[in-house]
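Weekly sync, protein design subgroup
Attendees: M.S., D.O., the rotation student, P.L. (late)

Item 1: inverse folding check
M.S. brought a backbone from last month's batch and wanted to see whether the design step gives back something sensible before we order anything. D.O. pointed out we never logged the input encoding, so this time it goes straight into the notes. Structure tokens as presented (172 positions):
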């Protein structure tokens, strides 16, 4: 079990991808070290990969991060983006219970293209993110693995519906 990241991790300037699983005790101070890694583009926090109650992406942290996976972190109560991760494109989430502090600051992720929910999906959490995506400048796609996406359903039926200002257009 790791209680903190080894000191040498902070010198991994070329580290592009990191997955943490069952580290049990890594918390906020270790997360700050990861946020300073200049080349990190993918961070995957799997089961028990993080022990903190809040996962906050603060200003100037995770400058190149493009992909973030947060998978059933049992102590996590809040996920927030306050200026950090300015290049995040894909956010993949699974929660075993509703994060009481919510998911905040999605509007600050100006490069966000997709949010995917998987595993046990909590409808209220999904709906919160879905509504935030509606007013996001990029209009990121929000999907859940327990239901086919609208695009997938349309593609499988062989029909395509386009909504335009002049009215709906049905394409076969």
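Designed sequence read out in the meeting:
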């Amino acid at each position: 079990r790791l209680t903190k990241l080894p000191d040498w991790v902070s010198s991994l300037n070329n580290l592009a991808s990191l997955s943490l699983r069952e580290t049990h005790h890594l918390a906020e101070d270790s997360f700050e070290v990861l946020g300073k890694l200049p080349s990190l583009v993918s961070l995957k926090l799997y089961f028990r990969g993080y022990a903190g109650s809040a996962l906050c992406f603060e200003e100037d942290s995770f400058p190149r991060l493009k992909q973030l996976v947060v998978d059933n972190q049992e102590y996590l109560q809040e996920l927030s983006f306050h200026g950090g991760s300015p290049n995040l494109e894909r956010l993949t989430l699974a929660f075993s219970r509703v994060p009481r502090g919510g998911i905040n600051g999605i509007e600050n992720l100006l490069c966000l293209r997709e949010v995917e929910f998987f595993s046990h999906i909590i409808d209220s959490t999904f709906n919160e993110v879905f509504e935030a995506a509606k007013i996001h400048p990029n209009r990121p796609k929000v999907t859940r693995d327990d239901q086919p996406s609208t695009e997938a359903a349309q593609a499988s039926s062989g029909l395509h519906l386009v909504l335009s200002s002049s009215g709906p257009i049905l394409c076969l």
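Discussion: The mean pLDDT is 83. The longest strand covers residues 54-58.
Action: P.L. to compare against the previous round before Friday.
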